[in-house]
Specification:
Elements (H helix, E strand, L loop, with lengths): L1 H10 L5 H28 L5 H32 L20 H25 L6 H29 L2
Helix pairs in contact: 2-3, 3-4, 4-5
């Protein structure tokens, strides 16, 4: 009975695979949004101000950071929780692949969230005349919350590694 239960539990890790396929679909959606944003930027470029172009480029950076984060999550989560990827010695295999454990993944996720939040905050600063002081204060507070959370995650991991 114990072997059957343990076998079932072990094989249940494959239930995560559809989640990763869904995240791949999410990357495709981000690609579509990226193309839409890029097209909008190109079409409106002649009439756009310098700050409009910067905000548009920051939006593209945001989308690419989120897509990159999804790749890291898909690869490392699949390898950590489902199965090792057999890519052999493929020359395009990312160097970090196979070396990102759950702790590293947490730090990469929070680091990416902080970067994305910083870009959003920069976009707000560029368009500061369109925001109230209260809105800007909330954005800064939220960003600082992400930064502090990231520092605390890193500190907890460092303290945990000392054992």
């Amino acid at each position: 009975m114990e072997r059957l239960l343990e076998g079932l539990l072990f094989r249940s890790r494959w239930l995560l695979a559809p989640f990763y396929v869904g995240l791949i679909a999410g990357i495709l959606l981000l690609l579509a949004k990226f193309a839409e944003e890029l097209w909008h930027l190109v079409v409106t470029l002649p009439a756009a101000s310098g700050s409009d172009v910067i905000v548009g480029i920051l939006a593209l950076i945001d989308l690419s950071l989120v897509a990159s984060l999804l790749i890291i999550i898909i690869f490392s989560s699949y390898e950590n929780f489902v199965s090792k990827m057999d890519t052999g010695e493929h020359e395009d295999r990312p160097e970090w692949m196979g070396h990102v454990d759950f702790s590293d993944l947490k730090l990469k996720v929070i680091g990416s969230i902080v970067a994305i939040s910083a870009i959003e905050l920069l976009k707000s600063f560029i368009k500061v005349d369109e925001l109230t002081n209260e809105q800007l204060a909330w954005k800064v507070a939220i960003h600082l919350t992400f930064v502090v959370s990231g520092v605390l995650f890193a500190l907890m991991d460092r303290l945990g590694d000392r054992r």
